[in-house]
Amino acid sequence: MSRIIAGVSGGTPLVSVPGNATRPTTDRVKEALFSRLESLDVILDARVLDLYAGSGALGVESASRGAASVELVEFDAKAAAVCQRNAEAMNQALRRRVVGVQRSKVESFLQRVSLAGVDRWDLVFLDPPYPLDEDSLAAVLVALAPSLNPEAVVVVERSSRSPQPVWPDALELFAQKKYGETMIWFAQPAGE
Q1: Which helix (H) or strand (E) holds 174?
Q2: For residue 192, is pLDDT > 60?
Q3: Does the chain have fewer CB atoms within 10 Å around its N or its C terminus?
Q4: Is 135 exposed, middle or buried (CB count within 10 Å of its CB: 0-12, 13-18, 19+)?
Q5: Who's near 87: CB < 8 A, 6+ residues apart?
Q6: Largest Cα span, the chain
Q7: Radius of gyration of the chain (CA)
Q8: What is the mean pLDDT of residues 108-118?
Q9: Could you give the C-alpha distances from 166 to 14, 142, 179, in angstroms and in order?
Q10: Residue 64 has pLDDT above 60, yes or no
């Protein structure tokens, strides 16, 4: 069972998506990831976007650790319902609405955000399903880049057997770390 690791709701269990269509980030990986993000001082008061959110565990963890707002984007109906339950639990613990859920394809969501031109993100998680091909992930990264704040951090989590994402010119890799079967890449807007 997945749980919130730290922050105001540390130790709180999270609802998991039934079945095996999603693969939750393990507590060990989540702990290491958030330790790194806290050392980069990117969570507190951040605007966070969790794409391919699954249960929403990464976004909800960010809210527990002080993010100003979190948007969970998930297309699968079962997973989006789980995101909603975890978001409601976090919002109740925080006594205010910090976490929202968008049931949408990631590409459609990014297109709407781009057209609106108002959302700029400080921290973005992408944990796409394994079947998502590299070209599709590259297209998502291209669509995401214009909606980032200049000092934003983008975190991509994939299988350690997956190749490194193809970064658009607007993003540059600054770190990567392997945790068993999980590989995490960290990128930022180019020139930062």
Answers
A1: strand 171-179
A2: no
A3: N
A4: exposed
A5: 56, 59, 60, 70, 72, 99, 100, 101
A6: 42
A7: 15
A8: 82
A9: 32, 10, 21
A10: yes
